[in-house]
Write the structure tokens for this entry.
Amino acid sequence: MKLSPLQIARYQYNPKLPGMLRNGIAEICVKNGAPTESVADQEKIKALFPNTYGKNEITFEKGENTSPAKKQIVGVILSGGQAPGGHNVVSGLYDALKATSKENELYGFKGGPSGLIDDDFIVFTDEYINQYRNTGGFDIIGSGRTKLETEEQFKIVAENCKKHGITAIVIIGGDDSNTNAAVLAEYFAANNTGVQVIGCPKTIDGDLKNEDIECSFGFDTATKTYSELIGNIERDANSAKKYWHFVKVMGRSASHVALECALETQPNICLIGEEVAAKKMSLAQITDYIADSVAARAAKGMNFGLAIIPEGIVEFVPEFSKLIAEINELLAGSKADAFNALATWEEKYAFIKNGLTEESFKVFEILPAGIQQQLFLERDPHGNVQVSLIESEKLFSEMVKKNLAARKAAGAYKGKFSPLHHFFGYEGRCAFPSNFDADYCYSLGYNAFMLIQYGYNGYLSKVSNLSKPAEEWIAGGMPITKMMNIERRHGADKPVIRKALVELDGAPFKFFEAHRDEWAVETCFTFPGAIQYFGPSEVCDLTTHTLALEKA
Ligand code: FBP
């Protein structure tokens, strides 16, 4: 592999650990905190997790390391979508494990959770790990989306662990993967396997956070990468003064990514799914809202602008989710074959009109033709519409175009509207981690090993106080069950980690809300530029606006 100069330079970067973990392995001791309760449904969660529920939160501090001497063979997996910093979690884990004893070993199970079932692994060496330090991506061992959730899978994993003498597994994943980590930990405890499970909070979406977990890793780098690109486009728009850019950004459900990018770049428009749902906004209302900004700017001679659209937006529009549910029903099972057998789009259109309620057909009717057809083309393996593939940036720009044409006909708008479309998602998931993510991830991995060494099971590696310099970060752990509640999933009550959506009374949204009217009409763009890896701390170690506002 040919190495870029930046990659060579990043190998030399020494990630910063929290102050309390900097004194060497021999001087890390545990400070016990209070016993925990789950965020809701305490009795039910307690009954489901009799062996791992209610344990104490802990923090590490400087003091004599009293953990028992024991050879550790640890397995690690990366689960779900890529997020910058994953390689540093693995290298932090490896370094703490080897610093404790050269005899310890780290197994990397390949391709995500399925690697644990298929027993497909590599044993890490210094040479192998060193190629991945401070780099983006998950290619060190790969990732996957297989869910580890059945008793049968757990049994196979337990057998594989026994075969290799594995003492602990570290699961690096999002809310679903960490939910499964808690269930696996409980299974291991109930069956006296002696294997521990530790989770690490990952996802660029930023929706795995709560009063304990201040942010998931990868959010910082991904949003900085998108914001750099958005800022560049804003500057281009402000130079050429002829295009309106519609930028969709990743974030499957929550709009944290869109909101953070808006705080960093001050675009004219940013839709927030959670607000759309709370206000029960219709497609027509959202379109009107964007068209108002286009028209107001045109009246000032500015026929250009930028709108950020979160990936998950359409599911938050009540009338659109109803339409999707009806389409899923309309094409369920063999009904899809009858639909696909129809020769022309006209025939298909008549079939759709017949099958939808009048209310949903009205919504369907106003959609641009391309989106209408997309709704019937893209199906997931269960036959459902793949909402994340809907080109919502095009949906809204085309609806705005129609809306402006009507305004023009009524003499209420005289501008020119030339939209361009972008989708930023994969561009940010494997970027070189920012210094923040490089430090945070290394600390999460290092800390995960300390939790293993002290015998904890069913805990999440927790590093907090993140808006302060790394020296002041606090390392510790908390039982995953603390973050759980019962939710209805696929027709059954399930214990899950609650997904964190954008809070409309939270400081990041409030800040955005207080400024967006001005941003909609004036040109207030800010240009964050590229992530800086070397240079002054005030430029290189910046956290996200979201974190800064939440902790202010
Ligand atoms: P995770 O929740 O697993 O971290 O993944 C998040 C995400 O990046 C979403 O933003 C996006 O919708 C999705 O993954 C894309 O998934 P895939 O990689 O399977 O295309």
User: Anything to note?
Assistant: Residues 80-81, 83, 174, 203-205, 250-252, 311, 388, 429 surround 1,6-di-O-phosphono-beta-D-fructofuranose (CB under 6 Å). The two ends are 44 Å apart (CA to CA). The chain has a mean pLDDT of 95. The longest strand covers residues 28-35.
